[in-house]
Write a structure and sequence with these properties.
binds protoporphyrin IX containing FE, single chain, Globin-like, mainly alpha
Length: 143
């Protein structure tokens, strides 16, 4: 293997690589589009966020590190401060994400491993009652 990142890309490869990650994120965003509670939290144009989420998941699963190279450390909770996320939004986000991984037909054991982390991560994103800065972070490299 000569591509950067591929040696350590176990989970990324097991999931099915770039194509599968793309299918998962597309399936997730289709659900967001139809969700009357979640949709208004997202910007009108869903495409840029969709592309970022694809890059993020590729990296998070051990694949190519394009997200960090482009945007710096994910700082996920901080990056979500401009969006008021309540318990209901977090729950729906997680449910849509679960269904998206099922629709993409990812191996059950891999899904279990992934959602062991994604569940707590989605709960950490709740910020509706927190007194946090709501202005967006710039897309600049943030280190
Ligand atoms: C819990 C409920 C969540 C809600 C309601 C939510 C909502 C959002 C919204 C509205 C955006 C902005 C999209 C855009 O700019 O077009 C966003 C960005 C993003 N979200 Fe979430 N999110 C949630 C949880 C998560 C979790 C658990 C993860 C990670 C596993 C995640 C990863 C990301 C990433 C990587 C971005 C792009 C950040 C950037 O570089 O600007 N989100 N999210």
């Amino acid at each position: 293997m000569t591509e950067p990142g591929v040696e350590t890309a176990t989970l990324y490869r097991q999931v099915g690589g770039r194509e599968k990650v793309s299918a998962i994120v597309e399936a997730f965003y289709r659900r967001v589009e139809g969700d009357e509670h979640l949709r208004p939290i997202y910007p009108e144009d869903l495409e840029p966020g969709k592309e970022k989420l694809k890059l993020f998941f590729e990296e998070w699963l051990g694949g190519p590190r394009a997200y960090s190279s482009k945007y710096g450390h994910p700082r996920l909770r901080r990056r979500h401060f401009p969006f008021v996320i309540d318990e209901k939004a977090s729950g729906r986000w997680l449910r849509h994400m679960r269904e998206a991984w099922q629709e993409a037909d990812v191996d059950r054991d891999i899904q279990a491993a992934v959602f062991e982390s994604l569940g707590p991560l989605a709960r950490q994103m709740v910020n509706a009652d927190a007194d946090v800065p709501r202005e967006p972070l710039e897309d600049a490299f943030l280190q």
